[in-house]
Amino acid sequence: MTPRRALTLTGEAAVVLVVVALAAGQVLGYPVLLGYVETGSMSPTMEPGDGFVSVPAPLAGDAEEGDVVVFRAQELHGGGLTTHRVVGETDRGFVTRGDANPFTDQDGDEPPVKRGQIVAHALQVNGEAVVIPSLGTGVTAIQDAFSNAQRRLAAATGSRSLLGTQGLTYILFGLSVLLYVVDLLLDDGPGRDRSRSRDRESGVSPGLVVAALAAVLVVSATAAMVVPASTEQFGVVSAEFSSENPTVIRQGASSTFDYGVANGGFVPVVSYLEPASEGVAVEPNRLRVGSRGEATARLTLSAPDDTGYYRRYVTEHRYLLLLPAPLLDALYELHPWLPIVAVDSVLASVVAVLGLVFLRGRRVRVRRRESRHGRSLAGRLRRLLR
């Protein structure tokens, strides 16, 4: 492989990685690999529209003072994702502030940030966040262009199914089919020679085919484990009276109720439930959920001695049961992301073995049709360039 070809492939892989990361972030509802800020609250560290390298909270570990984190706010921005810096920690949670703000978020209406609210950390090198200028501006412009196109198509066809993420999938699929049909019509038009030119045969490396199939399978499996798993919030009212509502609890007392975990897939899963704030207990904390099934744990929420409204959090980690349960338990104890890596590795290995068995090292041939006029023109161009 020539250096130029290697550089081209590297650039293409980088573009694909950026697109996949941004798309995954939209689907999951929090930044994956890449994120961006929309306001000036982090200026001058990050200006509006600047991007940053995002590290998922389970990989980054506990937040510390000075870290720039992305958390699910309760009051800020109407309860959306917020990117601010941790400036302190109390018994109730972290104190956060935008670099451009003269006061902390907790000086306003935002309660202290719990660990369960933090979804990602901005990558920092030598204490400085790694910033990608104008990344968010470009992403927003592309999103607006796609949204406008979707609205126009939906209005022209009278179908609301063309709106949103699902509608974008339909549009892209339709464009792919249309381009394929146009290519066939141009290739097989009147007067064209349908003979195949063997000197135009191109072979695709079997390793590339296997890698593509493995990537599709691994991405699908990872999404099946990551998307359903999340941090669930419960609003607890510490009251002076008892109530039938399980989240309205007499001050200093507790309430226990069933917490269901559903599996809509065909592959059994193992779900681990962890308290992500004080005043939460789960029993059992590990559930096996069969294909298209549901399992139940007992969730206990405790109310503080002082009356008021409090938030409690439970985090779920979910893994496909493709490895022995004791092995998943051991990996989970080391780090919550290790079972995902192990399951993905097994799936990729299976695809690689099947690819070696069926392809047997043979290149996948792709033949192109070419007219006589095209061959003649190509020949003339080659002679002129010699």
TrEMBL record:
<dbReference type="InterPro" id="IPR036286">
    <property type="entry name" value="LexA/Signal_pep-like_sf"/>
</dbReference>
<feature type="transmembrane region" description="Helical">
    <location>
        <begin position="167"/>
        <end position="186"/>
    </location>
</feature>
<dbReference type="InterPro" id="IPR019533">
    <property type="entry name" value="Peptidase_S26"/>
</dbReference>
<feature type="transmembrane region" description="Helical">
    <location>
        <begin position="207"/>
        <end position="227"/>
    </location>
</feature>
<keyword id="KW-0472">Membrane</keyword>
<protein>
    <submittedName>
        <fullName>Signal peptidase, endoplasmic reticulum-type</fullName>
    </submittedName>
</protein>
<dbReference type="GO" id="GO:0006465">
    <property type="term" value="P:signal peptide processing"/>
</dbReference>
<keyword id="KW-1133">Transmembrane helix</keyword>
<keyword id="KW-0812">Transmembrane</keyword>
<feature type="transmembrane region" description="Helical">
    <location>
        <begin position="337"/>
        <end position="359"/>
    </location>
</feature>
<dbReference type="GO" id="GO:0004252">
    <property type="term" value="F:serine-type endopeptidase activity"/>
</dbReference>
